[in-house]
Design brief:
47% helix; eight-stranded mixed sheet; single chain; Dna Ligase, domain 1; alpha+beta; D-amino Acid Aminotransferase, Chain A, domain 1; 16% strand; elongated; 33 helices; 883 residues
């Protein structure tokens, strides 16, 4: 028996029917793992492996030719040359090796798969995933050719480069090849026994229709399930619309091909199949060391086959070193690349406002102060872009268990889809936190009035100040006073957001429990459309009033065909236009800070550049017939139906709760927008202060240009004033940062959600994309979050870089994100489609108030939809189609 074992282990071909474990040094880890899987009772399709010894002689004969090509860096030709030589000199040898096994063990099998099993492959440090060729639906007659091609692919260009990157030498080249019974899969996929991205203990299952090649190569649509490794329950899932599968070609020589199937959004796996996979995963996990990457398949009869397993090759990392970043919400305020001054100011605002808010809601000053590092890094600066540090946000929210217990509402408050990648702290029940929230909620009206009263006091005190007449030292004192005053009252705005979002969540749950049709449940959007008068719409009304004044004077309207400076000079100098110019200045005085990217300190306001308003008016005049501040009759008809009919047939308590929540949400929306406009005005004061400091530093030679001030951090600017600056060569610092800013501005838009491990280096180099992938680009259907009702058709107008002078005449505006300053573009559109945002985001609120059908949260809309496409959108359901 021992002699037989030795012969088996040294044989050039090893079969799955052998009793003795194969030597991984001869057949590779992949083949050795297949043997282990079959011996623990799992269903593994029959296989045999041609060990590397069988190929060594063939490879050695051509080693000199390969080395010459390597030395001349002609690595693209190596695979082709090697294949030709193997087939010319070794075809008979390979045929003789496999013939006996085919006749003895695989006589009743007609189709096979051929895969590599290199000795270095599927190790803990290098997977070689996708580096060597695999072949499916191979006939017996085609096996020799495919085995040779698989072996030769060990020296393909990509495999050689991969070896170089992993520090693995090309020689000795020890390649083994597996021939396995082909399973014609009904559904198949990949399982990770540990989430390779977030490094959490969830099992992750990705599945598609047909054979698994479609899943690993991303050529078919897939569903993904996150399974609790202890209970087997699905913690979350991502279900795509499936339109294709990989199956056997009618022409055997073509192997596997992608074929179309009837579109379906039904989950691929049943609950029984998930449990079958869960038991299989546990069996593998208990018999293999470390996290595993498993490939599997269900055949047409429902039988589960395990095709292979290999270690997950990512380095083991402590989950505490993981940081999850997300800009789904904050990108509305700080889109694109942001200057160091804007980031440093925003970071300071978040730290102080959120720290004060948590203290107010928890009465736990000591605990908050001890956790200061959490509040110091609520936002991060990655490649010049601002992201939420979600790890710290959830740590902060856990201070108040009353908030942390409702994860759905917390996610909505932060404007994100899920927090599954974040290790959310567990929180005990705290009656103090509930009581504090209740007290703040009961007296929310008083606190709101207190906010507006104090804000107007601070704003009025400094709005008329001539900052250019002040010294840098005086400007520093003014800034600190303004900062202290606003920090004291700003937590009230956060409380308003909390109450609004949690009330909205309660309303959703109430409607889901009522006997309403889907049509009536959609009326919640109409309900929110009658929130009340908002400061956010007053700038629009002011522009429309200016347009009416200009429209009634043909000569003045014709003037707006000239360049911006000539228009501004004519308005200022011509007595005939005195009333128009007065209204023009009045708009700037009241709403001059309401511009595109208004929270970025480097963005000029209408105070700095009045021609911005000229551009807004010009475009409003060009499409005046399409302007409509609100489709009042249409909206009110549906609002009345919602108020009068929605709760008909439900209990008196539910009707009472519906009316109370309706009032709370409407009031909350109005105050949310009004407080945001107060924030806009406050940032306008901060801009003026820093621009004046910039001009002072320019006059004394510290800066080459006044606007260079925005390339310095806040502490660097103030350290000069305080006399504590380490380096006064500000010009050198600015020059380096301007060059970096230019590079960052030219780089592709990064994902909205990603993860980093260890120290944040400020770049995306070590970041992992957590963004949900959408279906194929040739699909002409999308779906998002319906926010403002109505159906409309029109041409797609994709706006990636907003400008007041962009022409939008009744088109459907499509953007990655918006900010409050986009209102002047929104009012000229027939529909709004935005990649980011939620039902309570600024885009959604303004879309409803303008009466424009609006859909947000539409992933990849700007890349999937082509400019000028005829587009049909349904603001009631969130459905989008184009052609």
């Amino acid at each position: 028996m021992k002699k037989h074992s030795r012969n088996v282990r040294t044989s050039p071909v090893y079969s799955s029917s052998n009793f003795c474990a194969p030597d991984p040094g001869r057949v590779g880890n992949k083949a050795a793992n297949l043997w282990r899987l079959s011996k623990i009772g799992l269903c593994v399709p029959r296989w045999f492996v041609i060990s590397h010894n069988a190929f060594d002689d063939l490879m050695e004969q051509h080693r000199i030719d390969v080395k010459k090509l390597l030395e001349t860096h002609d690595i693209g030709r190596i695979e082709t040359v090697l294949l030709e030589k193997i087939l010319s000199s070794g075809r008979q040898t390979l045929d003789a090796l496999i013939r006996k096994h085919l006749d003895d063990d695989f006589n009743n099998i007609s189709l096979f798969s051929v895969r590599s099993s290199a000795i270095d492959e599927d190790s803990k440090h290098a997977s070689f995933a996708g580096m060597m060729n695999s072949y499916l639906y191979v006939t017996k007659e085609g096996l020799v050719d495919k085995i040779a091609q698989c072996a030769a692919s060990a020296l393909s260009e990509r495999a050689i480069l991969y070896r170089h990157a992993c520090g693995i030498s090309v020689f000795p080249l020890r390649i083994a090849v597996i021939v396995q019974e082909m399973i014609d899969s009904e559904k198949s996929g990949v399982i990770f026994t540990r989430d390779p991205v977030s490094n959490t203990s969830n099992y992750v299952i990705t599945v598609g229709y047909g054979v698994g090649e479609g899943v690993v190569s991303n050529t078919v649509e897939t569903d993904t399930y996150w399974i609790d490794s202890k209970t087997g329950e699905v913690s979350r899932s991502r279900i795509d619309i499936k339109k294709s599968k990989i199956s056997m070609s009618k022409n055997f020589h073509k192997g596997a091909v992608v074929t179309s199937i009837k579109a379906s959004s039904t989950p691929i796996l049943t609950s029984d199949e998930i449990q079958t996979l869960f038991r299989m995963i546990n069996a593998v996990a208990s018999n293999f060391d470390g996290p595993q990457d498993i490939e599997w398949a269900f055949d047409a009869s429902g039988k589960l086959h395990l095709l292979q397993t290999r270690p997950i090759t990512s380095k083991e990392r402590d989950s505490e070193d993981i940081t999850v970043w997300d800009n789904s919400n904050i990108v509305e305020s700080y889109p694109g690349v942001t200057t160091p001054l804007t980031y440093s100011f925003a970071r300071n605002v978040y730290e102080n406002v959120m720290k004060r808010t948590v203290i107010r809601l928890t009465l736990n000053r000591k605990g908050v102060e001890e956790s200061s590092p959490i509040f110091e890094t609520l936002i991060g600066y990655l490649d010049g872009r601002i992201y939420y540090n979600m790890t710290n946000w959830y740590s902060m929210v856990s201070f108040n268990p009353a908030l942390a217990k409702d994860k759905t509402a917390c996610n909505r408050m932060l404007g994100i889809e899920d927090n599954s990648a974040v290790n959310t702290p567990s929180v005990p029940i705290s009656y103090v936190s509930y009581a504090t929230l209740l007290w703040r909620f009961i007296f929310k009206g008083y606190f709101r009035r207190h906010f507006y009263r104090c804000f107007e006091k601070f704003y009025t005190e400094y709005a008329e100040t001539d900052f250019d007449a002040c010294s840098p030292g005086a400007l520093y004192v003014i800034f600190k006073k303004l900062e202290a005053g606003l920090f004291r009252i700003w937590p009230i705005t956060i409380e308003n957001d909390i109450f609004l979002i949690f009330s909205y969540e309660l309303m959703n749950r109430l409607l889901n429990k009522t006997d309403l049709s889907d049509r009536k449940k959609n009326h919640l959007h109409y309900l929110l459309s009658r929130a009340g008068d908002m400061e956010s719409l007053k700038p629009v009304q002011s522009v429309l009033n200016l347009c009416k004044m200009i429209q009634h004077r043909p000569g003045l309207k014709a003037l707006f065909n000239l360049d911006d400076e000539r228009i501004l000079r004519s308005l200022r100098e011509n007595p005939e236009y005195k009333d128009v110019y007065g209204s023009f200045l009045n708009h700037i005085q009241n709403y001059g800070d309401r511009i595109l990217h208004e929270l970025k300190l480097e963005t000029k306001s209408m105070y700095d550049d009045p021609t911005i308003l000229i551009q807004v008016i010009r475009r409003a005049l060009s499409c005046e017939k399409n302007l409509n501040l609100k489709r009042t009759g249409f909206i009110n008809d549906h609002v009345n139906e919602t108020d009068n009919l929605s709760m008909t047939g439900n209990s008196g308590l539910r009707r009472f709760l519906f009316r109370c929540l309706s009032k709370i949400i409407r009031e909350g929306i109005v105050h949310r927008e009004n407080m945001r406009f107060a924030r806009t005005r406050a940032y306008g004061l901060v801009k003026k202060i820093f621009r004046s400091i910039g001009r002072s530093y320019h006059r004394i030679g510290l800066l080459a240009q006044p606007d260079d001030i925005f390339f310095l951090a806040m502490n660097e600017i103030f350290s000069v004033i305080r006399g504590s600056a380490i380096d006064l060569d500000l010009k050198h610092t600015v020059r380096i940062r301007k060059e970096r800013y230019l590079r960052q501005s030219r780089s592709p838009t990064p994902p909205s959600r990603l993860i980093t491990r260890g120290m944040n280096t400020g770049t995306f180099q070590d970041a992992y994309d957590l963004q949900t992938k959408t279906s194929k680009k040739n699909d002409t259907n999308l779906r998002g979050i319906a926010c403002s009702p109505g159906r409309v058709s029109g041409r797609a107008r994709i706006v990636t870089k907003p400008d007041p002078d962009i022409e939008i005449n009744g088109d459907i505006l499509i953007a990655e994100m918006t900010d409050p300053g986009w209102v002047f573009l929104m009012m000229r559109a027939n529909g709004l489609i935005v990649e980011r945002g939620s039902v309570l985001s600024h885009t959604a609120i303004i879309g409803r108030e303008l009466g424009i059908p609006t859909i947000v949260g539409v992933k990849d809309a700007t890349t999937r939809i082509s400019e000028g496409s005829m587009l049909h959108m349904n603001g009631d359901t969130g459905e989008i189609q184009w052609q």
